[in-house]
Amino acid sequence: MKVSDVKIKFGKCLELVSMDPNFHNISVGLFIKKDILTVWSYSKKEGVESRLNQIRDKMVEFGGLNHLDEDFKMTVPKGALIERPLKFLFSQCVEMSPEKKSDKGIITAKDNKTKLTFKVSGSQQQDKYIYTVSAEGEHEKPGLRIRAVVGGFIKYGECIRNDVDSFHFPDNNAHEEYVRVLLPYARNVSAVEQMLEASDQAGQMTTQSLGFSQ
Q1: pLDDT at res. 143
Q2: Quick one: 10 and 53 in the same domain?
């Protein structure tokens, strides 16, 4: 299909990963039309259909999305159509090992700047599901790092600040999968900004040449 045909059929391109490290370094895109997401590539390499379905299945597993009985497609649960977390989820699912399994239980991540370990826990408070960030370990001012992490969720998750150490999603509902996906990015905004800038440059180069790298 031509680029224009893909847009008509699958909607707008929400995110582009310029090189799939797990399948011949092809480019893979995530498209969205209403509440239906489609993983797509212009590559004609043997086995590409299976790879696209594998990425789709990882997004369902790691993001709490709904599987569709149609190749490359899935739906977003009501209230979960939040574009920025979906972009990070897609990138992770393309780049992760196909054997990786989703984590369960407590949501934690070690700080890559200090000896702290962050923990994110959620609870229903009146009409909002609030997520609170705490930290364990040695640091002179752990509150500063906690506020930075909350800021990361606001930046990358489209979240809303509830307090210096807490936030909620724009629909006020629980999104455990998104929190788990976003925490590694939220803990280090500066490094993620550099990563995104490099990714955008690679994506622009790729889209300027036949849409994607095949």
Answers
A1: 92
A2: yes
What three-state secondary structure class fits 3?
Answer: helix
User: For residue 214, what are the contacts with CB-CB under 8 A and spacing of at least 6?
Assistant: 26, 27, 41, 42, 43, 44, 45
Task: Kindly report the number of other CB atoms within 10 A of residue 80's CB atom.
Answer: 20
CA distance 64 to 31: 17
Residue 52 belongs to a domain: yes
Mean pLDDT, the chain, integer:
89
CA distance 102 to 110: 18
> What 8-state DSSP symbol labels residue 77?
P
Residue 78 inside a domain? The answer is yes
Residue span of the structural domain in which 83 resides: 3-98
Judged against a pLDDT cut of 90, whether residue 101 lies above it is answered with yes
